[in-house]
Automatic annotation (TrEMBL):
Residues 25-288 form the Protein kinase domain. Keywords: ATP-binding, Kinase, Nucleotide-binding, Serine/threonine-protein kinase, Transferase. It comes from Oryzias latipes. Residues 251-274 are annotated as: Disordered. The lineage of its organism: Eukaryota, Metazoa, Chordata, Craniata, Vertebrata. Gene3D superfamilies: Transferase(Phosphotransferase) domain 1. InterPro entries: Kinase-like_dom_sf (IPR011009), Prot_kinase_dom (IPR000719), Protein_kinase_ATP_BS (IPR017441), Ser/Thr_kinase_AS (IPR008271), Ser_Thr_dual-spec_kinase (IPR050494). This is Protein kinase domain-containing protein. It comes from the Eukaryota. One of its GO terms (molecular function) is protein serine/threonine kinase activity.
């Protein structure tokens, strides 16, 4: 085991020790990695406790997430189905946030399930996540990135889920029509069209999540905003004229003609979702 302190370069490996404010954490394994950094399963030394430690590559991003988590500390994490944070500390130029260790995210659960999720369980999941959104709205916070990966099971036996990853969460009053958020499959139409935004963007994303769980597939499978908004129009019809009048990006998403260069350029800077091709999806994930 090697100890990582504030004076050392952080090149994390299994067996390294992170020196926290409330104890030291031994890196047991890595659970995931992304543009933000890594998530490691860690055991707290001299105890039988395990945690998920999120290690940020960029301290500013880590500090922002910590500040957001502080906003929701007065909300009961278990009662409101939100992930629990234990502490935040710096290690060299890295920011480490210690969270409770949960079981599996909804995406991985669906990919490994042998049959569709029963409607009764979906109701339970919906009720829990609606409670989470209600709690966040009570303090004026929007999650802004609800998707299958960011919902995890705390207990598989009773389908107890929690909302995780507040890395891009914002206070609702800070949202603007220029805010880019959400992966395409879960992106609210008001985000695509450039309309005024509020916490309702999370409600749309939650609806898309529940459709995925019920059908075993994305409702809107396109990876471009242009095709996504076309699919929405085919189902729901054109937005009202006054809504289109207020939209900043309506020219980019006209129901006729090809997407504009501006739309394609913006789309190129947004992650396209989970990156799983349909041919790699199990047969049970095909539409009913």
């Amino acid at each position: 085991m090697s100890r990582i302190g504030k004076a050392e370069t952080l090149d994390l490996k299994v067996g390294h020790i992170l020196a926290g404010n409330k104890g030291d954490y031994l890196v047991e394994e890595f659970l995931g990695e992304g543009s933000y950094g890594k998530v490691a399963k860690c055991s707290k030394l001299w105890s039988q406790e395990y945690y998920a430690v999120k290690i940020m590559k960029i301290s500013r991003a880590g500090r922002k997430e910590f500040e957001t988590m502080k906003l929701i500390q007065d909300l009961d994490p278990d009662e409101n189905h939100l992930i629990r944070m234990y502490e935040c500390f710096t290690c060299r130029s890295m920011t480490c946030i210690v969270y409770e260790l949960l079981k599996v995210n909804v995406h991985d659960f669906l990919m490994n399930a042998e049959q569709l999720v029963r409607l009764g369980f979906i109701r339970v999941i919906a009720q829990q996540l609606l409670k989470a959104l209600k709690a966040l709205k009570s303090i004026g916070v929007a999650h802004c990135d609800i998707k299958l990966d960011n919902i995890m099971f705390a207990d598989l036996d009773d389908m107890n889920v929690k909302l995780i990853d507040f890395g891009v969460a914002k206070e609702a009053k800070e949202l603007s029509t220029r805010t880019r958020m959400q992966v395409t499959q879960f992106r609210a139409p008001e985000v695509i069209l450039g309309l005024p935004l509020d916490e309702s963007v999370d409600m749309w994303a939650l609806g898309m999540v529940l459709v995925c769980v019920y059908c075993g597939d994305y409702r809107f499978t396109s990876r471009t905003e242009y095709e996504t908004i076309r699919a929405m129009v085919q189902i729901f019809g054109l937005p009202d004229a006054d809504v289109l009048h207020r939209a900043n990006y309506k020219a980019d998403h006209s129901p006729v003609g090809p997407p504009s260069a501006g739309e394609l350029k913006r789309e190129g800077s947004v992650q396209s979702g989970l990156g799983v091709s349909r041919r790699k999806v199990p047969l049970w994930l095909e539409p009913r």
